[in-house]
């Protein structure tokens, strides 16, 4: 965090020496690294700054589950598929939201953070909301479908939610009991059908506790869920979750897992809203812990892909929608076990390709634009950049940097 007592200029209080994290702890990136402030900024880490393999692995595995879940969502006539779908939908977005909160801990309303919020969240939302609206109009032969930025298409609700959560981060870091307050807001949202669909505010409220939880977590919390005992306990928990999901197929509406509707909109009495919100939040938290328990902490073949998950997230739904428009998901082969397996592998492979470096390079101009032309440069930041550049040149000449 920035020390407001510290004057800017050449005479700055030296930082304390960095401490080596405990063995196995997924340590956060340094506070000055933009990656801790914007989970959506997935550019490769600068030279000398190590990315955390644990979180990159978690992000990649979560985006694979998102893509697979969206593919399964088109063929829910099969009871086994819907059971797996319900289990995945209980924790895959909560895991994403927890990670987003964790890397938003240093966010405040300084100009550089606002710039990253605009370029990493607002601009991609506007670009892709427009693109998906046009795809709906022309790809689905729907000339009446207009472009609106208030009604997010499909999966783009997450960017709206992330914007609201990030802007309110200083509030959650200031109040005394942020987690109970966020849970209370989620419960109140479930009894308020008048909230409507604008900016998916129901989801903003009902997923809010996971973001606030991420703000409160520390590296040691992730170390605890990585213990062998937790991994072993997670196996019966996942088995029990599958049984409950199978039992709930004819008895519980999927809308409770989407967190996008109030209780009355789901045909239930208003008082069931808070009850179901608390129950689903508890189940989601338990399965999210099980998910983190099995995320590898070492570098894997897919670790580097964790830097591009926002690309996979934004792009994969084009294929899902194209399949719907063309009737591809109605093919008889997808009603067979081998067809379902093939669809699962295909969805995982496609989103993997969409997270690769060539895709990032091709679309960085709209997913992570710099947009220096759109912002005023802070005089203090410009002076520090000049100082840093000067010190680099001095080191390059082999001279000692003046203290």
TrEMBL record:
Acyltransferase domain sequence ranges: 53-354
Q: Which InterPro entries match?
A: Acyl_transf_3_dom, Nod_factor_acetyltransferase
Where does the record place the region Disordered? 1-50
GO terms for MF: acyltransferase activity
| Source domain of life | Bacteria
Q: Where is the composition biased (Basic and acidic residues)?
A: 32-50
Keyword annotations for this protein, in alphabetical order, are: Acyltransferase, Membrane, Transferase, Transmembrane, Transmembrane helix
Protein name per the record: Acyltransferase family protein
Q: Which organism is it from?
A: Streptomyces marokkonensis
């Amino acid at each position: 965090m920035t020390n407001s007592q510290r004057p800017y200029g050449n005479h700055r209080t030296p930082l304390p020496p960095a401490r080596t994290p405990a063995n196995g702890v997924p340590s956060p990136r340094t506070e000055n690294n933009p990656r801790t402030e914007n989970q959506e900024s997935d550019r490769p880490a600068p030279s000398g700054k190590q990315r955390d393999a644990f979180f990159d692995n978690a992000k990649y595995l979560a985006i694979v589950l998102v893509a697979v879940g969206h593919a399964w969502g088109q063929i829910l006539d099969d009871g086994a598929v819907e059971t797996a779908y319900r289990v995945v939908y209980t924790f895959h977005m909560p895991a994403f939201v927890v990670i987003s909160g964790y890397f938003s801990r240093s966010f405040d309303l300084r100009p550089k953070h606002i710039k990253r919020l605009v370029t990493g969240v607002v601009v991609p939302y506007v670009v892709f909301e427009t693109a998906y609206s046009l795809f709906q109009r022309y790809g689905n032969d729907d000339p009446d479908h207009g472009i609106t930025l208030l009604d997010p298409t499909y999966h783009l609700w997450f960017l709206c939610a992330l914007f609201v959560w990030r802007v309110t981060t200083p509030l959650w870091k200031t109040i005394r009991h942020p987690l109970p307050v966020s849970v209370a807001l989620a419960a109140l949202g479930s009894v308020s059908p008048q909230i409507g669909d604008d900016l998916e505010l129901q989801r903003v409220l009902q997923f809010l506790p996971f973001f606030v939880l991420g703000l409160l977590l520390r590296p040691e919390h992730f170390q605890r869920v990585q213990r062998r005992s937790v991994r072993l306990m997670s196996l019966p928990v996942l088995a029990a979750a599958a049984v409950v999901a199978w039992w709930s197929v004819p008895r519980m509406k999927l809308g409770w897992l989407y967190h996008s509707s109030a209780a009355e909109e789901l045909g239930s009495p208003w008082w069931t809203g808070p009850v179901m919100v608390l129950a689903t939040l508890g189940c989601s938290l338990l399965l999210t812990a099980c998910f983190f328990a099995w995320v590898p902490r070492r570098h894997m073949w897919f670790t580097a892909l964790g830097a591009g998950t926002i690309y996979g997230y934004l792009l994969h739904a084009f294929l899902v929608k194209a399949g719907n428009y063309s009737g591809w998901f109605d093919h008889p082969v997808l009603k067979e076990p081998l067809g379902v397996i093939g669809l699962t592998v295909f969805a995982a492979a496609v989103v993997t390709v969409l997270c690769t470096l060539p895709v990032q390079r091709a679309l960085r101009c709209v997913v992570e634009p710099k947009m220096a032309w759109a912002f005023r440069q802070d005089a203090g930041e410009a002076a520090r950049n000049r100082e840093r550049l000067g010190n680099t040149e001095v080191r390059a000449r082999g001279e000692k940097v003046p203290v």
